[in-house]
Structures are given as C-alpha cells and as structure tokens.
Amino acid sequence: METFPLFPPRASALASRVDILFFSWLALAAVVATAIFLLIVVFAIRYRHGARIDRTLAPRTERLHRSHWIEVAWIATPLCLFGVMYVWGAVLYYDNKSAPANATPVYAVGKQWMWTLEHTGGRREINELHVPAGRPIKLVMTSQDVIHSFFLPVFRIKQDVLPGRYTTLWFTATKTGDYHFLCTQYCGTDHARMIGHVVVMEPAAFGRWMAGGIGQETMATRGAALFRQFGCSGCHAAGASVHAPGLEGLFGKTVQLQDGSTVVADERYIHDSVLLPRKDITAGYAPIMPSFEGQIDEAQLLDIIEYIKSLRGDG
Question: Which residues span the domain enclosing 292?
C-alpha cells in the first residue's frame, strides 16, 4: 500500500535549503503566534474589569525615570529574529536566481497548452526534459501566447514564463528518476493538462541519449539558416553594404545606446532587437532595422539567438 507523502521528495541541490527555510519560518511564526496568544489570555485575566490594579496615571516625573527595557525587548527581539530570517531568505533567493557560469542551457517555450524544450545540440522534446544528474542546468524560458509558469515541485523551483520576455531558472538534479512539472498560472481551457516530466539520468546514460539525436541540426545551425532566410546577413554580415552593427562576439558585451545609456547584449536584448528594433538603438547607427514581429516565432528566435552566441569574433 502506497503512502501519501506530506511533502514531495527532494531531488535537487536547492530543495533541502528551501525546506529548512520554510520549516524555520513556520516554527518562528508558531512561536510568535503562541506567545501573543498567551499574553492576550494573561492580560485579559490579570487586567480584567474589577481586578485590584492601580490604573491611575503616575506623575510625569515618576514616568520619566521608569525603565523601558520591556519596550526595547519587544521591539528589538522580533526585529533581530525577522532580520535574520530576511537575510537568510535573500541569500537563498539570490542563489536560486544566479545560475553557475558552467550551467548547460536548455531553451523552453510555453504555449497553449504544451511545453517545447530544446537542447543546444538540436534535440527537441515536447512536455519532457532529459537532464543528467549532478550537472547544473539553466532553463531560458519564454511564452508564445499568454503567461505560463514552470513549476518543478521535487526541485522546489518555480518561475513565471512571460510572452515577449526571457526568464531563467536553474537547478542541479541530485537523484535519478522521473519527476512531474506543471504550469501553475491559469492559462486557458486546458491549463490543467499543461504538464510534463523531467527524466533525470546518470551522466553516461544521458550522453547515450543525446547521441541518439546525432544527425539533427544544432540550434546554431538552424539559426544560421534562418539568419540567411530572413535577410539578416545582407546587413549584419562582414562586407555588407548597409551600415549595421556587427554581431561577432556581441553576446555578453555592453552596448552603448543612442540615448547615452548602456545595455548588456543578452537574450532579451537580441529578442527586442529583432521584434522591437526601435527600443534600443545602438549608438552610431541609424534606426533602419525593420521589425520581424509576426514573422518569426519564439522557437525560431531562440535558434537565431543561439547562432549569434556562436559568433565568437575569432574568425
């Protein structure tokens, strides 16, 4: 007979830290709530109507010389306790949002009502994600239509997925197995069916699984084809007659904009440059870039971004 677990199992490096913080908050809240409840009961009995208590106000001179240690204690003690919890939670939040530099990227697109996930090597999956145990994975996510949310209970991670924006999520799986993920943002009629599962494999088994996709084009290769198909190479390739920014070595660099501000050339910057070219105009260049909104879908745009990432600027 199977037992119903009160909490889902922990299968990531972050899960234990999240649980410890959660139960610590729960314990602190229980202690504070119990103390307040007991004080209410004690004060209600001790100072009830009819009790022999001196309720007259002391003279001003006497009140000025009274000790204020009780007031200091009930202000300082909760402030210190909740300050510690705040710092603890902030550190965990920062670690949760800061993917390691060596994290393997996987691209995810949510749409009504399915998840499309793509490895840089070219393997695509629908409502399924294969990952190796012990290796950090970074999900770069966007939506094709409405707001979705990617939630993996056993990893204790969740992130909203927004149309027109890129959000990231990372994890390191610690246990092999098959684990469910789901959308937790109501997104329409079949929202409840927008589910899938992550298959955590031993690194050797994952390598064999990836090798099964040999022959498929990589994301960068497909992106290069799209780059030519939509005429991008006519302006951005070396030797082009049009005065447009070069893309070699662009990704990750700081770009000077026409209004004097700067921006890092990340996934969001490239996304907006293709669909909203007048949003961030590079200094020294005329705003002649046409918008490809409605012509390029999110999956194709991710391929183009991966191609631009591959242009290292080393010839």
Answer: 219-310
Reported pTM: 0.77
Instruction: Specify the DSSP element, H or E, that contains 88.
Output: helix 69-97
Q: Is residue 55 part of a domain?
A: no
Single residue among 215, 241, 259 that ends a domain in this structure:
215
CB 180 within 8 A of CB 140: no
DSSP strand E in the chain: where?
A: 104-111, 114-119, 124-126, 128-132, 136-143, 148-152, 157-161, 167-172, 177-183, 195-201, 254-256, 262-264
Note the pLDDT tens digit of each residue in 197-232: 999 999 999 988 888 766 678 888 888 888 888 888
> Which neighbouring-strand residues pair with 110?
115, 143
Q: Are 188 and 304 found together in one domain?
A: no
Q: How many CB atoms lie within 10 A of CB 43?
A: 10
Contact residues for 248 (Cβ-Cβ < 8 A; gap 6+): 238, 311, 312, 313
**Residue 260 per-residue DSSP state:** S
283 with 138, same domain: the answer is no
At which of 183, 215, 247 does a domain end? 215
